[in-house]
Design goal:
Structural class: alpha/beta
Helix content: 25-40%
Number of strands: 11
Number of helices: 7
Strand order of the largest sheet: 4-3-2-1-10-11
Shape: globular
Strand content: 15-25%
Oligomer: single chain
Length: 243
């Protein structure tokens, strides 16, 4: 981490789409006003991403313009989530974002922090883990991206509807597996995991000296808007409610 950095912002799960103009406006306001030198976008920034050739469409182009402008004021990092894992080098370059692997170790303020979207650690969701393994393969992605843009959009809509139907049948959504989190932290030499995905903002004590910090999802469309971020400074990690 550059020595001159004093503030780092972490956010995830904005699920931006043409149907979320207020959430997009909230992101624009934060990117404009934030005093953070670096902003880490830890996955599911988009409700769905069907390929970098979509970046020229109206809504996607507005997101590119917003992020590119923000990249002139902040260093932007992007980590893929389960909705936007097809964001590729063309989109990253257009937005001025730097890609992060999942997980990534961040050395900041004298401590090692482990960053992840979080979905890889939801071990109890067996159907999703099977799909994740398939969809992250180069062969699956090449086959999907070879389809016409509108066909991909329709397929993404079908997959999203099937996912929502499956979630509706679950009494409790899958959470991160604590033992797997501890294993990741110990293997990476980190004491703190920062992640999103579950939409359950909280701090969890996993074991003595080991913690995980869960980011909020964002939704500014309804009567009760929600959305927060975690800000890291030398003094520690603090949750900031933007709603």
């Amino acid at each position: 981490m550059p020595a001159e950095w004093r503030r780092l912002d972490f956010l995830s799960d904005l699920h931006l789409s043409p149907d979320t103009p207020a959430t997009l406006a909230a992101l624009a306001a934060h990117l404009q006003d934030s005093s953070a030198e670096a902003i880490f976008l830890l996955g599911d920034i988009f409700e769905v991403w069907i390929g970098d050739d979509a970046r020229h469409q109206d809504f996607e182009a507005s997101c590119v313009e917003l992020l590119h402008a923000a990249s002139q004021r902040h260093t932007l990092f992007f980590m893929a989530g389960n909705r936007d894992f097809l964001v590729g080098p063309d989109m990253l370059a257009a937005c001025g974002m730097q890609a992060l692997a999942d997980p990534t170790v961040l050395n900041a303020f004298g401590q090692r922090w482990l960053l992840s979207h979080g979905d890889a650690l939801c071990m109890d969701d067996k159907p999703y883990q099977a799909f994740r393994a398939q969809a992250r393969s180069a062969a699956w992605q090449a086959q999907f991206l070879a389809r016409p843009l509108e066909e991909r959009r329709a397929l993404a809509r079908q997959m999203r509807e099937a996912s929502q139907a499956g979630q509706a049948e679950m009494s409790v959504y899958a959470d991160l597996d604590s033992a797997a989190c501890v294993q990741w932290l110990q293997a990476s030499g980190c004491s703190d995991l920062i992640h999103g995905h579950t939409h359950r903002p909280a701090r969890h004590e996993l074991a003595p000296g080991l913690r995980r910090h869960v980011l909020s999802d964002w939704d500014f469309e309804g009567a009760k808007p929600r959305g927060d971020l975690l800000r890291l400074r030398h003094a520690g990690l603090r949750r900031i409610d933007l709603a």
